[in-house]
């Protein structure tokens, strides 16, 4: 996941150099190769860090950013709704994949699972072939005499960073997302420690299901003229942060399921709004780079959150402080977004 987000700025640059279609196809192909090679190396964890961690992560990154940016080429009035439809796929597969993966491992082993995943992933490249961008911004290769500065200008699109609203949003998101993955990674362990004879996968599945609902509902809301998309995203972060802080104090499993359902709805809301907000600030022509740069900035906070939470747990033998800190970060990030409203 760290590689996926960290390489997002590269994905944005490649969409300018190669186009959305070529970048998506390249990403799907690299991800497929990474998974297929991994199926022959399941006993070598260090090598899997390269084939599954880096190769698959890079491929996923190159495919993910164009899949959001392409929507701005086709849709204007219903951009939020179509973003909801596109991103709902991850919610559906979060529910479907765990039992399927468990079945594959049990009957065909880890090599069989990797091969199945590689077959599914090649579909990403095939879908990328269907992309037909209306207009593509071509980033010219820097002239040799300009040297390093020209290269930096090619990689970091100066135009989008001149937009103060985008700049504030892109810098607020990493703060808000620092604790994002903490509940996903640690909630199962938290359930095992605090509850007995319960389905420990149920809260995650609930988050996935209601996340899909949230993506559609908030996607439709984002298309309304009277709706401020930034405010919607702020509300999402405030609710996610509050529910994450409440999480360690929940002593009833049914109540934990209810909290998970609420987290899922607003998780879907913030995800569905990423594409429309980036396009609103930078336009569809620069959507890939604006989304890619924001995700690239968020890569380190997203990746560091769960291991830091694990370290705190190992010191205190309690998930109270890790979940509270994970909940504070979206509250702080959402509050920083108020600065956007003071920009012309």
UniProtKB/TrEMBL annotation:
UniProt membrane topology term: Multi-pass membrane protein
Q: What is its main location?
A: membrane
Per the record, its GO cellular-component terms are: membrane
Alphabetized Pfam families for the sequence: MFS_1 (PF07690)
Q: Where in the cell is it found?
A: Membrane
Domain Major facilitator superfamily (MFS) profile span(s) in chain numbering: 121-344
Q: Name one GO molecular function term.
A: transmembrane transporter activity
Instruction: Locate the transmembrane regions by residue number.
Output: 12-42, 54-74, 81-101, 113-131, 168-187, 202-218, 230-250, 256-279, 291-313, 319-340
- InterPro entries, per database record: MFS (IPR011701), MFS_dom (IPR020846), MFS_trans_sf (IPR036259), Proton-linked_MCT (IPR050327)
Its recorded name reads Major facilitator superfamily (MFS) profile domain-containing protein
What is the native source organism of this protein? Answer: Euphydryas editha (Edith's checkerspot)
Lineage start: Eukaryota, Metazoa, Ecdysozoa, Arthropoda, Hexapoda
């Amino acid at each position: 996941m760290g590689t996926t987000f960290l390489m997002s700025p590269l994905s944005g640059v490649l969409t300018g150099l190669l186009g959305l279609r070529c970048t998506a196809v390249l990403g799907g192909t690299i991800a497929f190769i990474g998974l297929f090679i991994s199926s022959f190396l399941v006993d070598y964890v260090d090598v899997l860090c390269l084939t599954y961690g880096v190769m698959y992560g890079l491929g996923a990154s190159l495919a993910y950013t164009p899949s959001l940016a392409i929507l701005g080429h086709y849709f204007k009035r219903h951009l939020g709704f179509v973003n909801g439809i596109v991103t709902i796929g991850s919610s559906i597969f979060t529910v479907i994949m765990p039992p399927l993966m468990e079945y594959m491992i049990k009957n065909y082993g880890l090599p069989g699972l990797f091969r199945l995943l590689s077959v599914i992933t090649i579909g990403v490249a095939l879908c990328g072939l269907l992309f037909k961008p209306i207009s593509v911004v071509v980033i010219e290769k820097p002239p040799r005499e300009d040297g390093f500065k020209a290269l930096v200008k090619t990689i970091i699109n100066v135009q989008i960073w001149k937009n103060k609203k985008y700049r504030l949003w892109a810098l607020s998101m990493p703060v808000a997302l620092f604790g994002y993955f903490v509940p996903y990674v640690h909630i199962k362990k938290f359930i095992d420690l605090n509850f007995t004879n319960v389905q420990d996968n149920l809260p995650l599945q609930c988050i996935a299901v209601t996340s899909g609902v949230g993506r559609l509902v908030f996607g439709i809301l984002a298309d309304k003229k009277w709706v401020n998309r930034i405010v919607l995203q702020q509300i999402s972060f405030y609710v996610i942060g509050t529910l994450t802080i409440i999480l360690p104090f929940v002593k009833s499993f049914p109540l934990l399921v209810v909290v998970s359902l609420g987290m899922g709805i607003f998780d879907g809301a913030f995800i569905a709004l990423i594409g429309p907000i980036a396009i609103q600030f930078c336009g569809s022509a620069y959507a890939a780079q604006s989304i890619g740069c924001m995700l690239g900035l968020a890569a380190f906070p997203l990746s560091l959150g769960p291991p830091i939470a694990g370290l705190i747990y190992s010191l205190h033998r309690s998930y109270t402080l890790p979940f509270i800190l994970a909940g504070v970060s979206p509250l702080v990030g959402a509050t920083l977004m108020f600065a956007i409203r003071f920009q012309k």
